[in-house]
Specification:
Layout: H1 14-24, E1 28-32, E2 38-43, H2 44-48, E3 82-83, H3 89-99, E4 103-108, E5 111-117, H4 118-125, H5 129-140, E6 149-154, E7 157-162, H6 167-178, E8 185-190
Parallel strand pairs: 3-4, 7-8
Antiparallel strand pairs: 1-2, 4-5, 6-7
Amino acid sequence: MSEAPVAVHQGTPVKAAAALLVEHGVTALPVVDGEDYPIGTVTELDLVRDRFPRDPRYDGSDREWRVPPDTVGELISSRITGIDPETDVTDLVRVLLEERVRSVAVIDERRLVGMVTGRDLVRTLARDDDLLARDVRYRLSFIGGPRRWNVRVSEGVAVIVDEFDSPEDRHIARVLAESVPGVLRAECSAAEPTVTG
């Protein structure tokens, strides 16, 4: 989530809003009032509507070109797609897909506190497996120390081997590993007993 969300006001010029979209690589901007309460959304398609006059060399008609709106307030969609900061990522993905939007406002107590985009989710999926393994090891180090757990991550799947034999701790380890952004699934097992003789 972007914790310093880019937002515009109703009086923001269309050209300035377009520049913000380009600068921040987003496809929509929340429109907020003076108290940072979301009142709507403006998308890149809203901004380009009626902005390009028809080329008279290719259009035989003498149609009059409509002057496009100057400010975001004239283009705003009052429909707001927003989620709570505690929303599970599965529900976030469902909102993105079902609403056919590429970014979602994060709203806490009716105030805009962040934005999540599809690109944020893809960036998380693309995290390097070695970095994921390091993050998993760090979280697991609080349960039995750093040497207890053997962790490998491949294609986002964490394989954890517990040097001790505690089903309860392995359950906690799996939950902790799956809470690491980018880990798709975790499998946890006890270490094979050492055969001596």
